[in-house]
Amino acid sequence: MSIITPEEVRKISALARLSLTDDEVSSATRDLSGILNHFSAIGNIDTADVPAADAVSGLSNISRQDVAQPNTLCKPEDLLARAPKIKQGYVQVPGVFEESSVS
């Protein structure tokens, strides 16, 4: 039994801005019906005695708080002293999106 019709496939393909041939519509109808049949079979499984598995690992969030830390590794002046090129207190690097001049 076909769960999805060719008209529904055409409507879905139009929404997705896909142009399908009649053969592709037939193929997609068969494929999607097969997929939906699998979901239907899964939906018919009796899970009344199966406990919910919302946290299967037993782990909890152990991330640290997102708190700003003072920079203890290097002072900005030390970093700027090591930079090859400085402009107005910032490290200057070659441009990536500069326009090229074509003569």
TrEMBL record:
One of its GO terms (molecular function) is asparaginyl-tRNA synthase (glutamine-hydrolyzing) activity. Gene3D superfamilies: Glu-tRNAGln amidotransferase C subunit, N-terminal domain. It comes from the Bacteria. SUPFAM superfamilies: Glu-tRNAGln amidotransferase C subunit. One of its GO terms (biological process) is translation. InterPro entries: Asp/Glu-ADT_sf_sub_c, GatC. NCBIfam families: gatC (TIGR00135). Its EC number is 6.3.5.-. This is Aspartyl/glutamyl-tRNA(Asn/Gln) amidotransferase subunit C. Allows the formation of correctly charged Asn-tRNA(Asn) or Gln-tRNA(Gln) through the transamidation of misacylated Asp-tRNA(Asn) or Glu-tRNA(Gln) in organisms which lack either or both of asparaginyl-tRNA or glutaminyl-tRNA synthetases. The reaction takes place in the presence of glutamine and ATP through an activated phospho-Asp-tRNA(Asn) or phospho-Glu-tRNA(Gln). Pfam families: GatC. Heterotrimer of A, B and C subunits. Keywords: ATP-binding, Ligase, Nucleotide-binding, Protein biosynthesis. Belongs to the GatC family. It catalyses: L-glutamyl-tRNA(Gln) + L-glutamine + ATP + H2O = L-glutaminyl-tRNA(Gln) + L-glutamate + ADP + phosphate + H(+); L-aspartyl-tRNA(Asn) + L-glutamine + ATP + H2O = L-asparaginyl-tRNA(Asn) + L-glutamate + ADP + phosphate + 2 H(+).
